[in-house]
Amino acid sequence: MARVFVYGTLKKGQPNYKHMINTAKGLAKFQGWGRTVEKYPLVIAGKYNIPYMLNIPGTGHHVAGEIYSVDDQMLQFLDEFEGCPDMYQRTLMRIEVVEWEGKGGVGEARAAAEGVIECFVYSTTTYPPEWVGLPYHDSYDSSGKHGLSYVLRESRD
């Protein structure tokens, strides 16, 4: 099992969460909430209002999200879903555990107790330069006060 940190439309209550609980795509087990140890710019960009974490460490905010343990099948699905490696790149990042619900072995408990774990995160280095000038968010909600509602894939032209 691999750990994945999601900060956008794959979180609980967001438009693409349905994929995280679809066992036909693999297994994803919710472990807890966290935030990036380093600051990153989280922007909402493009005509479909997609959340992107720009891989510019030290800029922006500590980004909040959810931590999952996923099997190889779900990790492969997420790579495809996230357009990896073209649109997003899957990289290891240090995530501060804010609240842990995970039920795992001794290693899981130790990692949670230490407060920082490594997770795969889908961020991007392949973005138009003007995105750096967009507003930075510390968390994402598709129906947030930003007014930029996410457009589902099946609704895109």
Low-confidence stretches: none
CATH superfamily: Gamma-glutamyl cyclotransferase-like
Q: How would you sum up the global shape?
A: globular
Average pLDDT confidence is 92
Query: For the largest beta sheet, what order do the strands appear in spatially?
Result: 1-5-2-6-7
Number of strands: 7
The CATH architecture term is: Roll
Provide the structure class: alpha+beta
N- and C-termini, Cα separation: 36 Å
Q: How helix-rich are the residues, as a percent range? A: 10-25%
Number of helices: 3
Radius of gyration: 15 Å
Estimated share of beta-strand residues: 25-35%
Structural domain tally: 1
Q: What is the CATH T-level topology?
A: Hypothetical upf0131 protein ytfp
Description:
With 157 residues, this protein is α+β, with helices and mostly antiparallel strands. It is 15% helix and 31% strand. The model has no long low-confidence stretch (mean pLDDT 92). Keywords: Lyase. Its EC number is 4.3.2.8. Catalyzes the formation of 5-oxo-L-proline from L-gamma-glutamyl-L-epsilon-lysine.
